[in-house]
Amino acid sequence: MTEPDDVDGAPGALTKPDFEALARFRFGIRRYLRFSEETVRSHGVTPQHYQLLLALKGFPGREWASVRELADRLQLRHHSVVELVNRAQDQGLVERAPHPDDARAVRVQLTADGERILGRLSALHRDELRRMGDVLALPIWHDGAGPG
């Protein structure tokens, strides 16, 4: 059953505090992304390369990923990831190796330089997130709708 004030399937009207919480959260996201972009560039890496390195190191259960898996993680098209990997490989950040299960695919993994740069940048990102504290906490809604 839907509530009477449903608009396009979105239950409940937002209150002024809801809009403020949403705006504060959006501001926090943008502030963090700006910090990230400026920080990685100051270390000679593009934001896209940092995201690639992080996706590789953070891939569940192993230290490498296929281009297809990276495209999913980065929410990019396959050909865009191929180009991104090519540029990162030219910079010595990643390398390609034979895929263990699929002769048509390759696995992408970090180089020692990629590991070193990622470690330094990720520590800076962790520290910034700690400084930001509650700014990136999920908003608490005041619209009267409970969880679930």
From TrEMBL:
<dbReference type="InterPro" id="IPR000835">
    <property type="entry name" value="HTH_MarR-typ"/>
</dbReference>
<dbReference type="InterPro" id="IPR036388">
    <property type="entry name" value="WH-like_DNA-bd_sf"/>
</dbReference>
<protein>
    <submittedName>
        <fullName>Winged helix-turn-helix transcriptional regulator</fullName>
    </submittedName>
</protein>
<dbReference type="Pfam" id="PF12802">
    <property type="entry name" value="MarR_2"/>
</dbReference>
<dbReference type="InterPro" id="IPR036390">
    <property type="entry name" value="WH_DNA-bd_sf"/>
</dbReference>
<feature type="domain" description="HTH marR-type">
    <location>
        <begin position="15"/>
        <end position="148"/>
    </location>
</feature>
<dbReference type="InterPro" id="IPR039422">
    <property type="entry name" value="MarR/SlyA-like"/>
</dbReference>
